[in-house]
Amino acid sequence: MTPFTIRELFNIPTTPCDVYIFEDGKFKHNLYRGTYVSNDTLKEMIERGHTIVFASKEQRQELKELQQDCLRQVTRSFSMGDTYQNCKNQLNLITINLRYLFEDPTDDNALNLQYQSLKVLASFLIKNPKMHEALYRFFAAQGHHYIFAQPLLSSIFLVGILKTSQLYNDKDIENFFITSYFKDIGMSAIPIDKYDKENLSEMDKVLLAKHPIISARILQGRIQLSPAHMKVIENHHTFSILDKYDSDNQYLKNLTVTGFETIMVNICDIVAAMISPRPYREALTIFDALEKVRTHISKDYPHEFKIIINYFRNFFTSSVK
User: Fold this and answer.
1) Could you give the 3-state DSSP secondary structure of residue 179?
2) In 57, 72, 86, 290, which residue has its Cα 20 to 30 A from 107's Cα atom?
3) Distance between CA 51 and CA 45 in Å, rounded?
4) Terminal alpha carbon distance of the chain
5) Which residues contact 17 (CB under 8 A, 6 or more apart)?
6) Which of 158, 78, 157, 160 is nearest to 119 (CA)?
7) Do the strands 26-31 and 52-55 form a parallel or antiparallel pair, or are they unpaired?
8) How far apart are alpha carbons 99 and 93 in whole angstroms?
């Protein structure tokens, strides 16, 4: 039996696989292939603690192909009908496909689908900055695992900040959006369930520290990013997923930067992480998160910090917890 997240069963007409739950020490047939499954039924399963369900390897592959077809269709018809609703659908489908990429980073079809979908999403976000907050709040409430939600949350912030800076044209912003989104694909080297723990093994810590280089190697020659964008990926030092953001946060103190873009990629990632909950800590408010950032960068990067503060002041109309 192959485990997968119940999120993969939402918003599809019928289940393409027989779905099992693990209960009382054994697998139980819970949903039958080819039957309609309402979102309410799936929510009830989540409330019972069944966020991970099971299917045969072959049928889970059919589910994966169905979800990718849904993403492909939404991306191709994005400009038709209600584009705001299309965007919300795409956010969820992109995130599901990212999980597939983490399972197999060498899958060129999944990577190309993700890349093309992100280009369409970036165009919409660049043209509709007033929708960012609503989309952010919608997506943050969807319940995706933080490893897969974080890239979009932080990259939405990045689009807004680069747009606010008035230093970049739309194509530049699109490329940095894609750079920001893919920068942590190297974290796929560590099994996802380990990210829910405060303590990793020494080997996992080594892999985590090397994930920017691993990300660049995974992407090299496979998507259209320039050497400069690859350098941003290689040099980015994101927050530590193990850290609780206390006053001794070495990851904030030791940011490696190679220009304005790298600073923004780092800070958007850090802020998005701090205001989002983790299994081992609660979320900070946006005000507390920005205060943490201020203590570490405002002296050395006053201009950049001013842009950050002004952007987030306008982005959030109320505190985020």
Assistant:
1) helix
2) 86
3) 7
4) 38
5) 33, 55, 56, 59, 60, 62, 63
6) 78
7) unpaired
8) 10
pLDDT tens-place string over residues 54-101: 999 999 999 999 999 999 999 999 999 999 999 999 999 999 999 999
Residue 10 identity: F
If you ran DSSP here, which 8-state letter would residue 29 be given? E
| Domain range annotation of the chain | 1-55, 94-315
State the Cα torsion 159-297-202-4 to the nearest 10°.
-20
Pick the CATH number of 94-315 from 3.30.457.10, 1.20.1250.20, 1.10.3210.10, 1.10.10.10: 1.10.3210.10
Tens-digit pLDDT profile for residues 90-147:
999 999 999 999 999 999 999 999 999 999 999 999 999 999 999 999 999 998 999 9
Say how many residues make up the chain. Answer: 321
Measure the CA–CA gap between 304 and 263, rounded to whole angstroms.
Answer: 8
Q: Which two tokens stand for residue 195?
A: 């990210």
**What does pTM read for this prediction?**
0.88
CA within 13 Å, CB half, 318: 3
- Check: CB of residue 173 under 8 Å from CB of residue 159: yes
Q: What share of the chain is helix, strand, coil (3-state, %, to 5)?
A: 60, 5, 30
